[in-house]
Amino acid sequence: MRVGVAKEIKSDEYRVALTPAGARELVQGGHEVFIEHDAGEGSAFPDSLYEAEGAQIVGVDDVWADVDLLLKVKEPIPAEYDRLREELVLFTYLHLAADGGLTSALIDSGISAVAYETVETSNNALPLLAPMSEIAGRLAAQAGAYFLEKPLGGRGLLLGGVPGVAPGKVVVIGGGMVGYNAALIALGLGADVTIIERSIDRMRRLEEVLGARVTLLMSSSLQIEESLADADVVIGAVLIPGALAPKLVTRAMVAGMKNGSVVADVAIDQGGCLETSRPTTHSEPVYVIEGVTHYCVANMPGAVPVTATKALTNATLPYVEAIADQGLVQAVAADPALARGVNVLEGKLTYEAVAEAHGLEFAPLEDVIPLSPV
Ligand SMILES: NC(=O)c1ccc[n+]([C@@H]2O[C@H](COP(=O)([O-])OP(=O)(O)OC[C@H]3O[C@@H](n4cnc5c(N)ncnc54)[C@H](O)[C@@H]3O)[C@@H](O)[C@H]2O)c1
Fold first, then answer.
1. What is the pLDDT of residues 183-223, one digit of tens each?
2. CB within 6 Å of ligand 1 — which residues?
3. Ligand 1 pocket test: which of 178, 222, 253 has the largest number of ligand atoms within 8 Å of its C-beta?
4. What are 57-104's pLDDT values in tens digits?
């Protein structure tokens, strides 16, 4: 197969969808690999490293037009919509439930698009979201601590406190991959950490791993309101796979928070779990509403591309190899986890939650291709 890797053009995005190590694996597997000029530059992978592994360096037009499978990190932005086309398989993060414009552009183009974030194993794990969630959760705790500093508009509180002075309070809403990692780093900084979850099984697991160091509370509107009133940092980390994030925090709850406190809404890529959240970028990461600093960067791992590129490609490469070796239809038929990743197949919308989010026609994948193992 001809496998292309496009350079990311979204603001402040420095990751790349394939490392030189991944390029070598694909080339050794008999595939042709085309890397857009400078695609790896932001992750400290110059073109020469890919060329050394047998990949070819090409321009932007060629990488989109001349390949069978195109690898990206972030969803196509409007400037790229004209490049979407029939017979191309696009493998990238898509987050379509929060983006009606892109959903329509994909359908209209006749492309097949597989979303990293909805690849889902039989035990409901999200193997291609997990590495970025680990990074985003850890960064969210760091951002919370940082924006509490007075010169940055914060309350002027050291999150970990010092002997004789109480630490700050961190409330994490959603105790999944992002929430666990945020809690881990907040605990490491010495903060007083509470996780609000709706799954009792998940809370049992968190207690096993984190022990008595965290307070675990059942999610409800009242609990969230009460916990927020006392918090210095709030981290939004809920997810309903493929769907828009539930707006668990109202503007009134934000108004009830302390002046100069910080919210980091990591779930912003699914629309955010606060009514007051809107996406921000690394160049302008925060804004203030009701005296509360909002950090809502939609591509947080983009800030640490050297770590994030390796973590992402470690997870995606086996799926990339499966698609390249077998073709999308065979690979999907053989692997139900990959099948869950297919959001658009040849212009048909095959992911139910996305169809629901935009009121569009849903075409079940099993009606479009056979799904039993071949
Ligand atoms: N901004 C970024 O750069 C970035 C990076 C990675 C992930 N994310 C996003 O972070 C979010 C969380 O991802 P994740 O990997 O941790 O997901 P996850 O599935 O591992 O965890 C989500 C958790 O939310 C819990 N939850 C669902 N509804 C809830 C409710 N009403 N109250 C409390 N908890 C609830 C679930 O039980 C689950 O434990 C997703 O939206 C993901 O897309 C953003």
1. 999 999 999 999 999 999 999 999 999 998 899 999 999 99
2. 117, 129, 132-133, 136, 173-179, 196-199, 202, 219, 237-240, 245-246, 248, 266-270, 298-301
3. 178
4. 999 999 999 999 999 999 999 999 999 999 999 999 999 998 999 999
Q: Which H or E element spans position 90? A: strand 89-92
- Separation of 237 CA from ligand 1 center, angstroms? 4
The residue to which tokens 């919370």 are assigned? 144
Is 269 assigned a catalytic role?
yes
pTM check: above 0.90: no
Catalytic residue among 232, 265, 269, 335: 269
Judged against a pLDDT cut of 80, whether residue 371 lies above it is answered with no
Could you read off the pLDDT of 309-347 as tens digits, one per residue? 999 999 999 999 999 999 999 999 999 999 999 999 999
3-state secondary structure 73-138: CCCCCHHHHHHCCCCCEEEECCCHHHCHHHHHHHHHHCCEEEEHHHCCCCCCCCCCCHHHHHHHHH
Q: For residues 266, 270, 275 and 276, what is the CA-based torsion angle, rounded to 10 degrees?
A: 50
> Does residue 294 carry a catalytic annotation?
no
Place of tokens 């959760």: 137
**Pair 102, 113: CB distance under 8 Å:** no
**Which H or E run contains 312?**
helix 305-326
Of 11, 117, 133, 219, the residue with max ligand 1 atoms within 8 A of its CB, to mutate for a pocket test, comes to: 133
